[in-house]
Amino acid sequence: MLSDSLLEQLTETPLFAVALTLAAYLVGMTIFRQLKQPTWLPAVLIAALLLAVFLLVSGLHYTTYQQGAAWLSVLLGPATVALGMPLYQQFPRIRELWRPLVVCLPISASLAAVYAVGIAWLMGLPDLVLASLAAKSVTAPIAIGVTQQLGGSIPLLMGGLLITGVVAIAFVSLAARWMKISDERLIGFALGLNGHAIGTVRAFEISPTAGAFASLGMSLTGLFTALLLPLVWHLLG
Amino acid sequence: MTALGGFLWLVSFWLIGEVIIYLTAMPVSSGVLGMLLLSITLAIRGGVPDTLAAAAQPLIALLAMLIMPGVVGVFFVAGELGSQWIAIIVSLILGTLLSVLTTLWLMRLLMRGQDVK
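ok -> structure tokens follow
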């Protein structure tokens, strides 16, 4: 739609990509609120869809957009560090639950990988796909490193992360209702453990407590998986 | 201006994470390492400085926007999977359903007697 020379002019600085990201996010948030915050369609997904459609229509290449948007995504590092603040503020409540958390984490974090890889293996998917899905519940920056060690495909992993994050939000809210669980600590922990950053964002929409337990679940799952998964993977061949 | 000092805290902890990863070759991301180091530092210090809160709160609120550029890329790789995509999606959805149920069930079991609401 946009002429090549205009696109070239606009993408000379990262500002076009930055503006597109901000605009898509704000519009996505507005639509999300208009739809009364559906758990099955998070604001990130609405915004990403809007942006993908814009890229297709305008003829702007994803890689060009991504290079510009990297000026924003670099903030993901300090933003992840920032999660240390709610984590600290909830220390007393986390300490109350340290025993169940310590037992549950290794089991649940392992099963998050085992279930998906097991089902994929039963369905006859090749090793490359299995290696790309194993880190599906781990936060993106760690998952990328783990997947490289396993020899998986990064774009496929990113797709797996998105689907996992979105369905984890929906399943946690459905399952909590079905199991009559309303404890925000438990719901937050399950969101972060299974749904990484996407689940953690959702948990902060519920409450700061849920958000802190999600940050805890996300960071511990990331650490545990990063340390053990490559080792186990190579032992099993 | 208060947020600026807090932002320097956050970036510094991220950089400390980078240095530790460089020295120890740990397969972890510096963001997660920085997060854990920050929470431990705050616990030792006992309290959150105002400057840090001023920077951390808006950044946490923007987390969803910061992961968005990566999410957009997903729509541009879907075509390369061919006929495998149904099996991939089934294993992701079913696997996540099972692991969510296990986490909730296990945590509730382990938290028994600890006033689960």
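Residues 152 and 201 of chain A are 26 Å apart (CA to CA).
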